[in-house]
């Protein structure tokens, strides 16, 4: 079967709508009857396919204003800003230990002496914290972008639809029950027990959410948000029951952990969670073209040759891995996954080929800046980083809701 775009018959003046679609007589047409009667939707899908392919042609990009050069420039700029932010984070804090002094000591060891205190502060406290912040910020931002592409809704965020609560439940269960009920699991996985169990908790939450919100290939946004609220409430209830069972030492750790913090960053924690988050970040860009096709709808994506179900499964596992390992190490840090993709879409557009790597860079930058604020605003004490991100992210989320309803036009 061949499909044709809407054209006017040659030689017909004042053509009516029914005359605007025709079949040539000598083109091997074998469909039988008017194309409009194709109930299988094949022709509509093929026309959508042509439109989808045409959107990436040079002529189409030129007509609508090509943002690919802007996106590449933004990614390069973000990479430079990330390096500068990391250097700034090395010097920010209650101590006056200088990262510049450490660099001079590396380059000119005979000229620049570095005290043992400064070496410990920079190498064993600040540097692991920065690396963990980069991984977690990138993981949460990319997870938000993938979730929004998967559900085709800009309000999808791991922290708002129950995925983070599932990861928190898994992490709290290891902290409280790791020496008793979950001792065999801890013996098997060792230092990886916390991120692995948190990953399993977020994976179960994600599959439940997707199964509840999707029917006949269509995802209901209202059902997704309501199911996310229900899963979050259930996760918080079970987490509260575990906290009730915790002792005094565990309670102190859990209270600070639930607010979100990078204070406990060590090289051991990076070795435990870093590979999981890194694998998720490496896998995410390979989903970009599939997510672009999924924006047309699942039926059209299938006709484009995109394995939709496999794409969903890989996306869900990727998000669960990144969110689970991030929450296990840092606790509840919200709104990174919803703020970062929105800011970038305003600049570089919705193309996931550029949006995903840019989200990783900007997410890392914002989390490092929030961590620097948390370390300095009440120095020598430390404000939980989750409070900083919530104070910045909650108003932004409200602005998104008001803007979508047309109440705010900014």
TrEMBL record:
Annotated Basic and acidic residues bias: 16-26
Record carries keyword Transmembrane helix: yes
Claim: Membrane is one of the keywords in the record: yes
GO annotation, cellular component aspect: plasma membrane
Superkingdom assignment: Bacteria
Parts of the chain that traverse the membrane: 73-94, 127-147, 159-179, 185-209, 221-246, 266-288, 314-342, 354-373, 385-402
Region of interest (Disordered), residue spans: 14-33
Bilayer topology annotation: Multi-pass membrane protein
Subcellular location field: Cell membrane
Keyword annotations: Cell membrane, Membrane, Transmembrane, Transmembrane helix, Transport
Pfam families assigned: FecCD
InterPro entries given in the database record: ABC_BtuC-like, ABC_transptr_permease_BtuC
Primary location group: membrane
GO annotation, biological process: siderophore-iron import into cell
CDD domains: TM_ABC_iron-siderophores_like
Molecular-function GO term, any one: transmembrane transporter activity
Family: Belongs to the binding-protein-dependent transport system permease family. FecCD subfamily.
Name the record gives this protein: Iron complex transport system permease protein
């Amino acid at each position: 079967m061949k499909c044709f775009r809407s054209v006017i018959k040659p030689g017909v003046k004042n053509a009516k709508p029914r005359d605007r679609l025709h079949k040539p007589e000598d083109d091997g047409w074998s469909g039988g009857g008017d194309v409009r009667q194709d109930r299988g939707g094949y022709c509509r899908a093929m026309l959508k396919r042509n439109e989808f392919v045409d959107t990436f042609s040079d002529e189409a990009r030129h007509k609508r204003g090509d943002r690919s050069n802007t996106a590449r420039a933004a990614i390069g700029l973000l990479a430079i800003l990330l390096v500068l932010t990391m250097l700034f984070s090395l010097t920010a804090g209650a101590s006056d230990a200088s990262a510049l002094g450490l660099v001079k000591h590396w380059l000119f060891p005979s000229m620049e002496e570095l005290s043992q205190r400064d070496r410990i502060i920079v190498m064993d406290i600040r540097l692991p914290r920065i690396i963990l912040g980069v991984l977690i910020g990138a993981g949460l931002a990319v997870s938000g972008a993938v979730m929004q592409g998967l559900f085709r809704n800009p309000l999808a965020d791991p922290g708002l639809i129950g995925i983070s609560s599932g990861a928190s439940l898994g992490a709290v269960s290891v902290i409280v029950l790791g020496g008793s009920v979950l001792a065999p699991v801890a013996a098997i996985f060792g230092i990886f027990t916390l991120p692995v169990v948190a990953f399993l908790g977020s994976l179960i939450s994600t599959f439940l959410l997707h199964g509840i919100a999707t029917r006949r290939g269509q995802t209901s946004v209202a059902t997704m948000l309501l199911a996310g609220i229900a899963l979050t409430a259930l996760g918080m209830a079970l987490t509260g029951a575990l906290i009730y069972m915790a002792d005094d030492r565990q309670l102190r750790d859990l209270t600070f952990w639930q607010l979100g913090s990078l204070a406990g960053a060590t090289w051991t924690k990076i070795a435990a969670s870093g590979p999981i988050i890194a694998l998720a970040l490496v896998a995410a860009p390979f989903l970009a073209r599939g997510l672009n096709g999924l924006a047309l709808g699942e039926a059209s994506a299938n006709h484009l040759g995109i394995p939709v179900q496999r794409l969903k499964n890989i996306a869900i596992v990727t998000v669960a891995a990144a969110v689970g390992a991030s929450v296990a190490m840092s606790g509840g840090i919200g709104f990174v996954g919803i703020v970062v993709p929105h800011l970038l879409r305003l600049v570089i557009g919705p193309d996931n080929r550029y949006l995903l790597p840019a989200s990783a860079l900007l997410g890392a930058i914002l989390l490092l800046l929030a961590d620097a604020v948390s370390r300095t605003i009440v120095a020598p004490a430390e404000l939980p980083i989750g409070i900083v991100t919530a104070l910045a992210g909650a108003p932004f989320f409200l602005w998104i809701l008001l803007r979508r309803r047309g109440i705010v036009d900014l």
